[in-house]
């Protein structure tokens, strides 16, 4: 009978204050859409005004919620799972069982340009990533050969904890 003793638990975060500026732009689009809908006399025709209102509201919602989801990322590692939660609501969320992880690497410099911008990204030649800022991060190689990368502060210690758990799982 094998007794599994849980190893260290690690939590980390990374944030991007620039995303708040983009969220403000989204809120401004929402405000403009509301202003057009409420204070316009609708004398220039309903169709152009309605298209403007709907366009401003849709763009505002997309920008606002798209940026707020990636203002920060929280990473939790325990003996069984590597979990990434984005934004204030924790969505999108990715849970990877450590039994599915082949290796973990510390990456000292990750840039949004390498992944095509901020957010939840997928590139066929690189894998999947959650990028909220430039800087250090963790790269997991999964058992199926796919990569998962996340930018997070103190990534070097995160990799140490993952490797400790992977050694324990290998026993």
Explain what the structure shows:
With 171 residues, this protein is of the alpha+beta class. It folds into two domains: 10-15 and 76-170, PH-domain like (Roll), CATH 2.30.29; 18-68. Helix content is 38%, strand content 33%. It has four helices and nine strands, in the order E-H-H-E-E-E-E-H-E-E-E-E-H. It has helices at residues 18-39, 46-68, 112-115, 155-170; strands at residues 10-15, 72-77, 81-86, 93-97, 101-110, 119-123, 127-131, 135-142, 147-151. Strands 5-8-9-7-6 form a five-stranded mixed sheet. A four-stranded antiparallel sheet has the order 1-2-3-4, with helices on one face. It is elongated and about 75 Å long. The chain starts with 9 loop residues before the first strand and ends with a helix.
């Amino acid at each position: 009978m094998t007794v599994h003793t849980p190893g260290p638990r690690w939590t980390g975060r990374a944030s991007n204050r620039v995303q708040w500026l983009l969220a403000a732009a989204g809120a401004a689009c929402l405000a403009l859409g509301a202003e057009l809908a409420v204070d316009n006399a609708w004398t220039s025709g309903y169709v152009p005004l309605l298209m403007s209102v709907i366009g401003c509201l849709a763009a505002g919602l997309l920008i606002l919620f798209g940026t707020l989801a990636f203002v920060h990322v929280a990473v939790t590692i325990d003996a069984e799972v590597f979990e990434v939660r984005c934004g204030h609501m924790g969505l999108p969320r990715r849970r990877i069982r450590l039994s599915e992880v082949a290796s973990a690497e510390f990456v000292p410099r990750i840039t949004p340009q390498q992944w095509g911008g901020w957010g939840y990204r997928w590139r066929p030649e690189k894998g999947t990533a959650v990028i909220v800022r430039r800087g250090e991060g963790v790269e997991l190689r999964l058992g199926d050969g796919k990569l998962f990368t996340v930018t997070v502060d103190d990534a070097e210690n995160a990799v140490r904890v993952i490797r400790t758990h992977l050694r324990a799982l290998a026993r």
